[in-house]
Design a protein that fits this description.
The protein is of the alpha/beta class. The protein has two domains: 211 residues, P-loop containing nucleotide triphosphate hydrolases (Rossmann fold), CATH 3.40.50.300; 82 residues, Alpha-Beta Plaits (2-Layer Sandwich). The chain contains ten helices and 14 strands. Strands 6-7-8-3-9-10 form a six-stranded mixed sheet, with helices on both faces.
């Protein structure tokens, strides 16, 4: 058994001259919830399609649960759960009919877990899928995916379009994932409040490349925010160590920097700063600054 649920080596997918994935090297260890974060076009959906065997890479390698993604068997697929934003299910079929069909397909089916997760949504077994709200369909899909007993559960924007109540119910239901440590979850969402609530590790993608991989706490610790009163001309941004963002607001210089400790305050004082204050940085701001830096890098060059 591989210690990684996902492994890619120089994984590339091109659409004409555009790279959706650009030599991606990624290793996702077993256990916990790993959140993939990136702007639109970062390559997240392309990565999932390749991992699930729906799309061939242009070059490079991709493995899921130790298997080449181009050679997945029905037994391999039974080890992988997948929920996407569409929550597509046959509208004419009843909930209990779909559940019974799924139960026959998966030898590790956990009926108690299915009932527990679906219970968050008050869905009746005799209801047809066409009678369910979008939030109820999302919960039904999650219950089906978890109950199959997957080693890996991939969630691609599963709460997109859900209202606040349905989103909260989905996240609470996710906490009931199968037996905790024996199910690894890879979660993709643009909702930062969701990421902060469920993620044990963050994977930052931008322009098809891996930009960072760390726990939320580690990532926030790398980014610091400083406000300085500098009476003279602000320094050339190219001379500011670790600079992510620089702004002048109400006569004060604001710096968002990467991997800078207390010595950065001395750097600012060396420029003639009358006062230097370090401010708290939230996860949302840290991620946005990192992604914005990489996104703007080609233009700046």
């Amino acid at each position: 058994m591989s210690e990684f649920v996902i492994e890619t080596h120089r994984l590339t997918r091109r659409y004409g001259a555009r790279f959706a994935l650009d030599g991606l090297d990624l290793k996702v260890p077993r256990g916990q919830i790993h959140a993939i974060v990136g702007a639109n076009g970062a390559g997240k959906s392309t990565l999932f399609r390749i991992l699930l065997g729906f799309l061939a890479p242009s070059s490079g390698e991709a493995r899921i649960l130790g298997r080449d993604c181009r050679e997945l068997t029905p037994d391999d697929r039974a080890r992988i759960g997948f929920v996407n934003e569409e929550h597509t299910l046959p509208g004419w079929r009843r909930v209990d009919e779909i559940m019974a069909a799924q139960r026959k397909l998966y030898p590790r089916w956990n009926q108690a877990l299915f009932d527990e997760v679906l219970g968050h949504y008050h869905v009746e077994p005799g209801q047809r899928v066409s009678e369910l709200s979008r939030g109820e369909r999302a919960g039904f899909n999650l219950a089906l995916a978890l109950a199959q007993g997957p080693e890996l559960l991939i969630l691609d924007e599963p709460t997109l379009g859900l209202d606040v109540v349905a989103r909260r119910a989905f996240l609470e239901a996710l906490m009931y994932r199968s037996s905790g440590e024996d199910c690894t979850v890879v979660y993709c969402s643009h909702q930062m409040d969701e990421i902060e609530r469920v993620a044990d590790q963050l994977i930052l993608l931008e322009r098809g490349k891996l930009r960072a991989m760390a726990t939320p706490e580690e990532l926030v610790a790398r980014v610091s925010y400083w406000v300085a009163e500098i009476p003279f001309k602000a320094p050339d941004p190219r001379t500011v160590p670790g600079l992510l963002q620089q702004q002048r607001i109400d006569g004060l210089q604001h710096y968002l920097v990467l991997d800078q400790g207390p010595d950065f305050a001395e750097f600012l004082r060396g420029l003639g700063a009358r006062s230097v204050n370090r401010m708290a940085v939230g996860l949302d701001r840290a991620i946005n600054a990192l992604l914005a830096q990489h996104h703007a890098a080609p233009a700046a060059a």
